[in-house]
Amino acid sequence: MSIHAHLRVVFIAALTGLTIGFQPAAHAQNDGQPQLTLPRVTLSAGMHRIDAQVAATPVQRQIGLMHRREMPLHEGMLFVFEQPATQCFWMRNTLIPLTAAFVADDGRIVNLADMQPLSEASHCSTEPVRYVLEMNQGWFAKRRIGAGFRLAGPPFAAR
Fold it and tell me: What's the confidence (pLDDT) of residue 32?
């Protein structure tokens, strides 16, 4: 195993270890409160820095950015799945417009989807991915970042 592959495994293991037993997230869906205390990772999109909360467990991924009334400009949420698959997202109980970037293991953006608040319309990746990065709607477009662009950061370092 290369050093990059080893670091990636350690990164995922650390995130999973940090998030197991995270009780507030389990209650956030029931009481309408956003989950604000997830672990964070710094990503970059060229010269742009992204401070992303990491949703790595099924409960954290299910709640995602629900119930948020706003999100700072350079923040987002990175959804981490165990295996690459076609990932589909919707906006139930999500109050802010978002863009989902469906991201391959190597950091390549496969496709983007603009999603409207409170919609149950499904938005899916066009190929199997392990990561989905949600940002405020327009963040990627304003920076002319689209399909094929590569994100950088610890989750993608092994690729």
Answer: 85
Cβ atoms of residues 149 and 108 within 8 Å: yes
Asked if 80 and 131 count as a contact pair (C-beta separation under 8 A), the reply is yes
DSSP state letter for 19: H
H or E segment and range at residue 142: helix 139-142
Residue 59 host element (H or E): helix 58-63
Q: Within 10 A of 5 (CB to CB), how many other CB atoms are there? A: 12
| pLDDT at res. 141 | 98
Read off the pTM.
0.82
Nearest to 135 by CA among 79, 56, 63: 79
Mean pLDDT score, 141-153: 98
Least confident of 23-27, 59-63, 89-93, 146-150: 23-27
